[in-house]
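OP here, attaching both records as promised.
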Amino acid sequence: MPDDHQRIVLLNWLVSTSSTRSRTHQAPPEHPNRLLEILNARRIKGWAIEYFIPGNESYDTEGLRVAAGAKAGASFLRLQEITNADSGGFRYVTLLIKHANATIKAFSVEDLLTYEGREIEGNETERGVIAAHVTFRLPRGESQLDIGRYRCVVEVVPTISRSRIEHFLCRQLRRTTDVEEWSFSVNEHKGRKSQPVPKNIRYTPRLELSADVGRALNTSTTDPAELAYMLFTKRSERQTIGRPTEVRQEDVYATVDIKISASQGPTDPEEKIGWTQVIRNFYTGRGFKERLYYRHQSGDMTGGEVHPAMEGAADLLMCPKAFVPMSAVPVPSEPTANVELVRGMRVILDRDELWEHSQ
């Protein structure tokens, strides 16, 4: 079978977690089944779409937001389809996510005999589109061990990186749970001798993609680099102001930056990766936005967001990979989930030996 008919997939873990602004309580994670119901409901309503334009958060309703993005002719990610299949003790879920690129209005073709080329153009509202499959495995039985971490394979597709998929899923969930004001209840003591008082704390569920390696530049570039520091930023963080002797306290809201130097971590490279991940999980779980900075051997400092093309290439280099043989080249803009590809992805999810080294 020609190698051109193979599809590369990345071995990842789908992690269910939650974020909250509380500094003393950890929000409970939600089971993916409940979150999938939210995503599917949004898909049916035509809301499961994220536009790559600023200011798309300022509309009162989802209908107005989607209409504004369409009117602007912006690029977007959209959830095309969710499919399910039960086999044995597991449930296999596939998400078909499409990326429409507003800058691509035509593509080139060339005659194999005459070498004459031409441009095939779409109509006024048509743009270039490409699709990616994401398949993960969930336990079906309540007796099965469920730690909120599930085997997941992601089809390698240019411009649809792991971080874009994760951002899409988390943002879609947040749009619904913010409107519905999801919260969990805790009991708090106002004083040493006071009775516990129930309190509701807002939180947001998240579905994150995790690989067994970190995003270190020295694994994806020829110019070696090491982590210099981590910066965590949170806008409108509540801080209590008052001296120890004062009874009256005042709450203020401000933008908070927390900078953690990598030099404070362990010297062993493997231990430092674990130390870094614990810190990142702690602050991102509290709603902080992270920004990693790296120091090159040349002394230059780099940081911030990565170009989508470089990000996709880094995913391909860093993540464990597997190959799905195909009888024909898949259509880039699949209208529905490719049955042959999804079947091959499910086979990979069941191969225990592949996942023993991806813990």
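Record two, same layout:
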Amino acid sequence: MDVEHRLCEFRALTVMLLLLAGPAGAQVNNYVVGPQDVLAIALFDQQDLGGKYTVEADGTFTFPLIGRVKAGGMTLREIEQALRTQLSDGFFKNPQVSVSVEQYRSQRIFVVGEVRVPGPYPIVGDMTLIEALARAGSTTEHAAGEVLIVRSGSGVRPSGPVLPEQGSGTEVLRVDIKALQSGQVAENPSLRDGDTIFVPRAESVYVFGQVHNPGAYTLQPRTTTVLQALSLAGGVTDRGSTGRIRIARVVAGKKTELRVTLEEAVLPGDTIIVPERFF
């Protein structure tokens, strides 16, 4: 089989793989390589030169024939072009080079809060918020209605999660979960090395007394009145009195009991008490 025919087959296979990869494949091409990343490099018709190469602390790796190759701060396609250029200089005619990431080690994010599998995750390609949440098993039933992306303003890569209250130098991006789930592109930003994805816990209200299902309930965005909070608890029983409902609320550090109507607003942390009717 001549070289030209094999080259055509190689190009056809490459196109097919890119089509199968879809948008995710395009995103990985934009990944910026850093120290400790492990690259898988393949050369068409030069299998002996292919292999796995670890990017060292100075952002370079050693490649046969050409020595040190810069990779830190470059995308995969830029590294491919650099290898082609150097291998074309006296070694091969029109070399076909493929570079991918075997192990992502240089960049990571932290996903914490109300997700099913919190922890650090490597940045894979041009990772977006919804991809990060998917890797963390998605949000729990106790998650609030927004996600916070916290970025350190110091320019130094954090060694662990950074929360909003940890200094004024942090940048906080707020993303509405429902807008994110509906597919709004503006609500699905790309992530950066060192980002902390924080999913806060939703505020709760407590309902006790003559209701069908007493207990703690997550306040939904539209849960604002006593009546709406009672509906979360299955409503008032036949023995309950809707005219003498009380709310136990902490005000200025002190517990206070208030008589309320069904139309009055509830606050996070309120305890709604439905007494029994006199007759």
